[in-house]
Amino acid sequence: MQTFDLAAHGLRALNSTLHALRGSTNETAWEIINPKGSHAIAVGVDAPIDITVRGSTGYYCAGMNKHATIRVKGSAGPGVAENMMSGTVIIDGDASQYAGATGRGGLLVIKGNASSRCGISMKGINIVVHGNIGHMSAFMAQSGNLVVLGDAGDALGDSLYEAGMFVRGKVKSLGTDCIEKEMRPEHLALLANLLKQGEADHLAKPADFKRYGSARKLYTFNIDNASSY
Amino acid sequence: MCGIVGLFLKDPSLEPHLGAMLTDMLITMTDRGPDSAGIAIYGRPHKGHAKLTVQSATPDKDFETLAADLGKAIAATVKGVVKDTHMVLDVPSDRLDAARHAMRELRPNAKVMSAGEGIEIYKEVGLPRDVAARFDIAQMSGTHGIGHTRMATESAVTTMGAHPFSTGPDQCLVHNGSLSNHNSVRRTLKRAGMTFETENDTEVAAAFISHKLDTGSELGEAMEATLTDLDGFFTFVVGTKNGFGVVRDPIACKPAVMAETDQYVAFGSEYRALVNLPGILDARVWEPEPATVYFWER
Predict the structure, then answer these.
(1) Most buried among A34, A135, A148, B80, using CB within 10 Å?
(2) Average model confidence (pLDDT) for chain B?
(3) What predicted TM-score, i.e. pTM, was given to this entire model?
(4) Residue A152 carries which DSSP code?
């Protein structure tokens, strides 16, 4: 286990140390202490390593992550795992706004609540939130899946493309062109897998969820509207 | 951007450290706004006394005989303490309005920063570390306080454009965001008799709440009304003689984190601002919900 004291050595030293670990490395287990809400912790990691952050983080923790497993033993500020490519990010506490925004792949797990704009413009990432999510979540989400064990705020999935959404609790309101959809066996199987990966299979059963998706009336070209374009 | 910090103490044993705690919190938020900084500190009121905090660009000239001149003008004993460009004048509480009025004649170039039984506001152009040092904020005690570091958008970088804004006795407000209907709200408030010192949007929000409080609203109601009547982006933190409140607009893109323990309620634009507070690791830490009013009163 490599331990990095962020208060002692600073952010640049941390991220350049982590960026140096390309491809295979023997230094696979890392612990970051004294994060104190600092920004951009472990951004741009591109190696199959395991990083544990001992405390809460500020903006953009684990952004652009590729291959790494990053655990935050606290809460995360805005933009956690933004544009993640692959790997896994697990937040033990809450996440602030736009968690997992524009994520291309990998898995983001938030064990507390996520606030507004969770999964905005997601493009392939899977996000599992054990608590609630705030308003405008999955706005313009393109692909990937958002699983919420708690409630969702206003305008869920507004202007949605082809991302899937599964919510167990109440949805305050659906956004434009977002509708509830039939839950078929393949969706239950997908959800069961996501709950397992998201360390939530002991907390919820797939059958307790409702599925939401795009009505496909907004983003598809409609010849009758040609004069409006 | 802009950075906000706030602290409402429940445990009196922390009161001697209020200034030091707020200063540390505000310095941490420096990179959210380099233009100007300000702090409102609420001290324990002394019966029969009120404080007028004034600012001058030429303090040597304006402050030398100000306490005596003001005392003569309002026929009362006035004591004053000069801190850099600011002076805190101790006047009888029943003469506070008269003192404020007399200032306009006596020192037309000086500006009133705050007036009330508990509040003192210090603000200047510059970084939090420098502004706090000029006024020795770290040595101040008090029951609650609010700090702000500004990245200017809606009006010029001047002392008067710095936050907190105070538009009523013992009231102040700081803001992260920008308002889009401040001109029309200002016109409405002017017709209702409110006066303005600047073209700043935040001053309008402060005056909006002051006007509500003047016309019978409670703090919570006044803050609730910002959600319907003010258009734009805002996270507001509001101080009154006994209270401390937080409200965010429904979009809530301006960040906010709160923490509460048995000893205090704290606000920060980011969690970073709170990390040195006592017991923070065991505090209840949460993000205030959009369009939801939070306030504490003693």
Answers:
(1) A148
(2) 97
(3) 0.94
(4) B
